[in-house]
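Input.
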Amino acid sequence: MELLSNLLSEKQCSEKAGVAPSTLRTYVQCGFLRPIEKDNELFFEESEVASVFRSPSEPVSGFKDKAIKKSPVAEDVVSTSDSRALVLNQSDEVLEKRQLRDEIKALKQERDWLRERLERLEARIEREQVIKVAEMEMMKGLIANRATKKNFWRSIGLPWFNTDVKN
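Output.
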C-alpha cells in the first residue's frame, strides 16, 4: 500500500512540479519519466518526478513545497522555459550517449575487422614459412646430390684441363 501512496496522478504531478500536463507527456515520450498506467490514467512515482524536475541545488525533499506563488500565467511561462531548458539539456545528453554508442559500435567493428585481418596474415605467414622450409630442403638435397656425382672429365684428370684427381 505504501507504493500507491507514493504515486501521483498526472494533474497532481504537474501541479507539484510546476509544469503543464503536456510537459509530463513529453517527458514520458522522451523516456525521462516512466508512468504507471491504471484505468487509462497516468500515475508517476513522486521520487522519480522529484529527481527529474528539481533543480540541481535543491534537495529532493523540497519537491513538495515547490509551488511558486505567482500568477498562473507567469508560473506557466517560468515552468515552461525551465522545462524546455531541462528537455534540451537532457536531449543533448541523450544525443551524446547515442553518439558514444555509435562510436563504440564502429570501434568494435573495426577491432573485429583488424582481428580477422591479423588472423589471415598470420595464416599467410605460416604458409610462406612452410614453403620456404620445403625449398631449403630441396636445395640442400640438390647440393648434396651434385656433390656426390663425379664429373667425367674431372674423374679422368686430364692435365690439359688443369685438374687434379680427387677422390
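Residues 72-148 form the longest helix (77 residues).
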